[in-house]
Specification:
Layout: H1 10-14, H2 17-25, H3 30-49, H4 60-79, E1 86-88, H5 105-115, E2 123-124, E3 129-130, H6 135-145, E4 149-153, H7 156-168, E5 172-176, E6 182-183, E7 187-188, H8 189-195, E8 199-203, H9 211-217, E9 222-228, H10 244-253, E10 258-264, H11 282-287, E11 292-296, E12 307-311, H12 313-321, H13 324-327, H14 332-345, H15 349-352, H16 356-362, H17 365-382, E13 386-395, E14 407-416, H18 421-429, E15 434-436, E16 438-440, E17 443-447, H19 456-465
Parallel strand pairs: 1-15, 5-8, 5-9, 9-10, 10-11
Antiparallel strand pairs: 2-3, 4-12, 6-7, 11-12, 13-14, 14-17, 16-17
Amino acid sequence: MQLLRELPPVHELQKSNRFTSLVEKLSIPDSQVTKIIQAEIDYLREELLAGNVPIEKPNKLTFTEYIWNNTEEKVLKFKQDRLIRVINGTGTVLHTNLGRARLSEEAITHVVSVASNYSNLEYKISEGKRGSRHDILEELLTEVTGAEAAMVVNNNAAAVYLVLRALAKDKEVIVSRGQLVEIGGSFRVSSIMSESDAELVEVGTTNKTHLYDYQNAISEKTAMILKVHTSNFKTIGFTETVATEELVELKRKNSHLIFYEDLGSGSLYDFRNEGIGEEPVVRGVIESGVDLVSFSGDKLLGGPQAGIIVGKKEYIEKLKSHQLARVLRVDKMTFAGLEKTLRSYLSSQDLVEQLPTVRDIIKTDQQIYEQANDFCVQLKKYSELYHLQVLADTSQVGGGTMPGVKLPTYIVTINHKNISTPELARILRTGTPAIVTRIKEDKIIIDFRTVTKKEMPELIESFISLSGMDD
């Protein structure tokens, strides 16, 4: 095909001033620019061979311009950060897609300090010799949960896997059928158990499990009773589950067994006192006599992603010494963020309630109304192109936590006179800062439960900046 001969060669484009400019101004390796150019030429060649001509008046000059325009666009995109800050206007506090828990200012400062300097991650300063990273948070965790010992791994799924692999490999683990949950990304408790080489023994039915179901399932091969807190769904109606206290008593009558409870979300703050949900507090579960408990660091706890395991010292020591403990360990920044988060729980009630996750969950609808109303008042001062309305609604906690719990809130519904709702959502989403909203009944919805007062000026400015745009 004649047009194929019009495609410029790579070496010719490398001699262009535009090539030199991209490399020097954006400090990008020339090999990366060359790679993108080659990809653009290959794309054009494939299109031409398929009988498609993606540009008008195709010739060497227009092909060259097309390649450079696309290359410059992709180089700029390559230079952009992939992980960016987002304003969460959805009202979902623990939004998995948006990074779940926000860290407190104290935790962020500590992370920066530890990350930008050397630290005593595995060094005993008082003794001048090698230490263990397991020691960094163990005292804080035992103090805040009441457990004998504790350790931290990279997430709660890892915690479940480590416990099963280290303490129940090739042995039976009894689990209620109603607790064989699936968490995010299609990861299932049953699959994790299979990978750990623990043998799953299902008891009861989907909606009902009795104490005698557990009793009848105990055999010489049984190593563990596992109770999984159904933190991401709720079964109602004709149901029955066995209480933790009953399973503790069953374990006492069968002393060779380990009773392990996977709490999933893991709360250190009793939201029940605020009339929010029925989430058990970790300390209460430990005090009931459970041998091991695991939970997440980045859900209701309000810290960085981590899996926390607390319980009897004899079992925690076995977990620490297992080879997988190194595979699943966390880094210094996670320890730093988690340390300051835990210290908040050992301080005053006011400090606990200043943790972003706790603060946003217990935020009152009146506080949210005032914020939503202020947004409307401020935006109306600068633009008449928006139709704004403050309405009562509900938020959710999110992150597979507190299923069925609806938090009273206020939202602002938004329409632009010249910009369609889907396009407005796209513009907000791709702006700086990125603003993620909801769409309902062809209206943009912002729930101010998850918008901080510090973010309000930026949010308002983003809407003002596009107020005169045409669709």
